[in-house]
Amino acid sequence: EIVLTQSPATLSLSPGERATLSCRASQNINNYVAWYQQKPGQAPRLVIYDASNRAAGVPARFSGSGSGIDFTLTISSLEPEDFAVYYCQESRQTFGQGTTLEIK
Amino acid sequence: QVQLQESGPGLVKPSETVSLTCTVSGASINTYYWSWIRQPPGKGLEWIGYIYHTGRTGYNPSLESRVTISVDTSKNQFSLRLSSVTAADTAMYFCARELGVTMFFDSWGQGTLVTVSS
Description:
heterodimer, A: mainly beta, seven-stranded mixed beta sheet, four-stranded antiparallel beta sheet, 11 strands, 0% helix, B: mainly beta
């Protein structure tokens, strides 16, 4: 069973800052990683798939990188609407525990 | 643009079976894989299972003994049955469309809250 560990659990930043969220897999998962954004009371929204591809309509300030075990979601310059919980996911059945991106 | 809409009872008694339906519009259910995912209040996401239009299914091992997912291609719907529910099954239940070899979820329903309580 693959386990995804996200860090940090909570990230406190200000608008305009750069956010770096990490997802580490317990074994090699190639590029089989997606990232989701979830705001309170809403369904998750796909942000990144196949580790580095932006989903339709996602702003260019979002980027994903990594392969194998370590993956990163980067938001280059935070906008107020980016503060949310972010989950990584591997091959359908495994989600990370989430990183809460909160306003500092 | 694909849209998914969950429906089902909001309140279920312990030990009973809950049935939820996901109605898909804007896409044929014959073309993709479809999943159920849940989220207990204040917690993370848990994948429950998937179905293909052929009836092929796959379930989370932790829930497999209590879960059945079925499809009705004539109605463009798929359904979830979860038996012997307990308070631990209280959650928001989402249906989602799965894409790609890497099996990510590109479209989600808004979710339906299931509360297990006597």
